[in-house]
Specification:
The chain is of the alpha/beta class and 274 residues long. It has a single domain, classed as Rossmann fold (3-Layer(aba) Sandwich), CATH 3.40.50. It is built from ten helices and eight strands. The two termini are 15 Å apart. Bound molecules: iron/sulfur cluster (SF4). Iron/sulfur cluster (SF4) binds next to helix 4.
């Protein structure tokens, strides 16, 4: 199986596999749709469906992360905030980040559930010791710290781009050489707090509707009546500056701070942002 985030690395991984670079192909590529991906990612996955000789399957938690964040509920519909939002004390002092539950609930669990379905193993039934699934993940050498052993003994995480010593830049170069007429999107939820300062600037420039929607949801997180205001004594923000999103991006545009990294680091186990 190939975990298809629909962004740069997983797209290149799927295309390399399709070209026979690894001596064998996955049976299926699985795209976990959070309901909050940028339009460019959905278009890219649609294109891959027509390009690849193996199946692409879209799965979801049967609900939208965007709608759940806006409503202040988790994937079970209970009051919660699933995204790793930035928190600050009422006096503006940074107070860490919210616990991230979204990757597990809206990506990892739907993928795991689809793998079970494909293998004919009912939910919650034990998996036989003889079962072993390779899960190919699009992590590159510049993000090697995101490699993880799967918590499921019967799933073996594999990192073919690391085996090829490919970096994210190598992926972009390979893609530009082979598909000069196309552009690679970055796969991440539109309102993901891990988005870098540069990423927010790019979103505002390239997809104003999605950016405006993220601004609206960012504002809703601090509005009276939202579950986030009842749950935290802190204020909640999508941007690492811990100020309203529109204001933060305007400040970034003024500084044009292209050197600030995103917050993917040790997070997300190679599922998001690839
Ligand atoms: S991209 Fe961000 S918001 Fe979306 S599931 Fe991953 S960590 Fe959560």
């Amino acid at each position: 199986m190939l975990s298809l985030g629909g962004g740069t690395q997983s797209t290149v991984l799927a295309l390399l596999a399709n070209d026979g670079c690894f001596g064998r192909k996955p049976d299926v590529a699985i795209f976990a749709d959070t309901g909050w991906e940028p339009p460019a990612v959905y278009k890219n996955v649609e294109w891959l469906e027509s390009e690849l000789s193996f199946n692409v399957v879209s799965v979801s938690a049967n609900r939208s992360l965007k709608e759940d964040v806006e409503a202040g509920v988790n994937a079970r519909g209970r009051p919660w905030l699933s995204i790793p939002a930035f928190l600050s004390d009422p006096d503006g002092t940074p107070a860490g980040m919210n616990w991230r539950q979204c990757t597990t609930d809206y990506k990892i669990n739907p993928i795991r559930s689809e793998v079970r379905t494909l293998l004919g193993i009912p939910a919650r039934s034990p998996v036989s010791m003889a079962t072993s699934v390779e899960m190919w993940l699009g992590i590159t050498t510049d993000e090697a710290e995101r490699m993880r052993v799967s918590p499921d003994q019967w799933i073996v995480n594999c990192y073919p781009l690391i085996d090829l010593s490919m970096s994210r830049e190598d992926c972009i170069n390979w893609f530009n050489e082979n598909y000069p007429e196309r552009e690679l999107p970055r796969s991440a939820c539109i309102g993901c707090p891990y988005r870098s300062a540069e990423g927010w600037l790019q979103l505002r420039k390239s997809d104003r509707d999605s950016f405006d929607d993220a601004v609206r949801i960012d504002e809703s997180l601090r509005a009276s009546g939202h579950n986030a205001t009842a749950m935290f004594r802190n204020r909640v923000f999508l941007h690492s500056r811990r100020v309203p999103l529109r204001e933060a991006v305007e400040a970034d545009a003024a500084e044009y701070d292209m050197n600030r990294e995103g917050h993917w680091g040790n997070e997300c186990a190679g599922i998001c942002g690839v």
